[in-house]
Design goal:
about 325 residues; alpha/beta; pyruvate-formate lyase- activating enzyme; seven-stranded parallel β-sheet; two-stranded parallel sheet; about 20% strand
């Protein structure tokens, strides 16, 4: 039996400690695909103000790299303190020793560089924090941002998490991604040239894609040099453009059987030294429209682990 190289196993091997990522979601961060800089309405699977106007009432100020000032900075610093401390305490009780501050929600390089410096530095001062994981888009990274992350990486762990989703431009256009595959390739390679670690996010079951297309995305991501990967199925939630397509019968979600079969084939392709951070995802509340099997992540993982064991793999 071979153990899949998970995030936990990777750090246990590297530093001999149990390491966990602490997700952070800060006020003011948004996406250029939501604010209109590169597209309007966001990705078709993303809930945003275009389909849920009430969201706009909760976040009235949004940042971009061109913002002249950041009136939310003190609030953001307090959010880091609160979210980090509460989650770290929870995980410490479960045996975790060190943490990465994971800037997860929205696009976490899409802000003035001075704001990024302040927020990243503040997160690194949290107890037992050994580094950062920055969730972003390839069209929201600049050489200046990579300079900053490279400087941080000289003393801390730094991961840059890019949403690849698909390497097919027709798919990216259909989901209203706002950039093409060449842009993702360019910035992943530039990030790797700086010596930074890259995690690629991939979605199986995107509109119009068959299994071979999904596996080709895996092959290209490997070719581009990713160090880690997150894979999850496309599911439909309310207040999205994808929900409209689904309700009109224009989109059929991937089945659990097809998803697991594709996942097994993807793991056969992945080199053994690529860290697998996620094998599935779902949402267990009333916002989920389809597929029903994405409502219970524990049941998903049980089915996936059973299929992996049959192939001699332990996740």
């Amino acid at each position: 039996m071979r153990k899949v190289l998970t995030f936990g196993r990777y750090y246990k091997k590297c530093i001999g400690r149990r390491v966990k990522k602490i997700p952070l979601g800060l006020s003011g961060f948004t996406c250029p695909n939501i604010d209109g800089r590169v597209a309007k309405g966001g990705c078709t699977f993303c809930e945003n103000e275009s389909f849920a106007p009430n969201l706009a009432k909760t976040k009235k100020i949004f940042l971009s790299p061109e913002s002249k000032e950041n009136p939310l900075l003190q609030k953001q610093l307090k959010e880091i303190d609160f979210q980090y401390s509460a989650t770290a305490e929870y995980y410490k009780r479960r045996g975790y020793e060190k943490f990465l501050a994971y800037f997860q929600a929205f696009t976490n390089t899409y802000a003035p560089i001075d704001t990024l410096k302040t927020l990243y530095s503040h997160a690194l001062k949290q107890p037992d924090c050994i580094g950062l994981s920055i969730g972003t888009r390839s069209d929201c990274v600049s050489d200046e941002v990579l300079d900053l992350l490279q400087e941080i990486d000289s003393e801390h762990e730094v991961w840059v998490e890019y949403g690849i989703q698909s390497v097919f431009d027709e798919t990216l256009e259909r989901i209203n991604r706002g950039h093409d595959s060449a842009n993702v390739e360019e910035w992943i390679k530039k990030t790797k040239d700086r010596g930074l670690r890259v995690c690629g996010h991939v979605i199986f079951g995107l509109p119009g894609e068959n299994q071979e297309m999904m596996l080709e995305t895996i092959r290209k991501a490997i070719e581009w040099g990713i160090d880690s990967i997150k894979i999850h199925p496309l599911y439909v939630v309310k207040n999205t453009a994808l929900a409209v397509e689904f309700m009109k019968g224009k989109f059929t979600p991937i089945t659990q059987e097809e998803y697991i079969d594709t996942l097994l084939k993807a793991l056969e392709i992945l080199p053994k030294d690529i860290v697998v951070q996620r094998l599935t995802a779902g949402i267990g509340d009333s916002s989920l429209l389809a597929p029903a099997w994405c409502a219970d992540k524990n049941r998903q993982l049980l089915a996936i682990r059973k299929a992996l064991l049959a192939k001699g793999l332990i996740y």
